[in-house]
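Blinded run. Sample ID left blank on purpose so nobody reads anything into the name before looking at the predicted structure. Input follows.
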Amino acid sequence: MENNIFSQLYCWKCLSRLYLCVFVIGSVTTGYNLDLKNPVIRKGTRNTYFGYSVAIHSEGEDDMMIVGAPRGDSNITGITEGGAIYRCPLVPYDYQGECQLLVLETQRSDPSLNRSHQWLGATVKSSGGTGKVLNGNFVLGGPGRSKGTENDAYLGYTVAQGTQGLDVVTGAPRGGRLMGKVYIFKVTDTAVKKHQQLTGQQFGSYFGHCVAIMDLNNDGLDDLIVGAPNYWNKETHQINVGQVYVYYQTAQGNLDEEHKSIITGQVTNGRFGFTVAPLGDVNDDGFNGEYAGKTTVRYQLCSLKKIRYTEVLGFKTWLYYG
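Blinded prediction complete.
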């Protein structure tokens, strides 16, 4: 598939000094207190997937975006498209300069390792202004590292850590005979034990492709958001519209499967729920909100003699308030 498109980053300023950043090539839905008329735009190099991942970071009084470009070049001899990470200033808002490439190393630390096409920058995170890299234990997913208890389940495809009841959550989008699964683990000083598991509702929906943890109903307990971007709406005969599931934690420490909320995408091949993220209280109503994104939609018409691509419809974001 052709990827010769110009990546851009749009960042909308919130009145509460919260910044919401998403990678878009198109439009965005309206929000309560988001300034949609004056987006902050940061551009990257063609075909580098600039904006594949984004994190807001602060150093002193400086606010910035840390942007991943997993097909970018880090300018290290012997490494081709190893991925790159950029630092983009948020202010001034009309900044027209280039983002700064973060130099993590100047030469290959181990020439015996093949690090070309390693997708550095596929995920970026920030610890905020604390300067801490790690705080206690951390969890790293490794889908395909071993067979586990279910072959090709992709356990560890995505992971999230909570602070109020949900210790570790990980997705296995090919688990449950391709229904998709999400596992909740309890962590102690000596062991990691499975506490609960959730199963998707449709074969091949990729339930568990992404997960996010936050308190959505202000009860002091972690709640869970799960994306299933390949969900097929059989009633409207639309493929890959995507779904997002919201599970609320009970006082007993379990996620309530019976009273979950389900949000269904509306665009064929839109893959709504490809990414989900907690936003905090965006509209100042005392409840946290969530963000759900959908991927670039590119329709491809094929024949034996030629391939014709229609327009890129774009990334879209949807805000849901608690």
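Unblinding after everyone has recorded impressions. The chain is about 0% helix and 35% strand.
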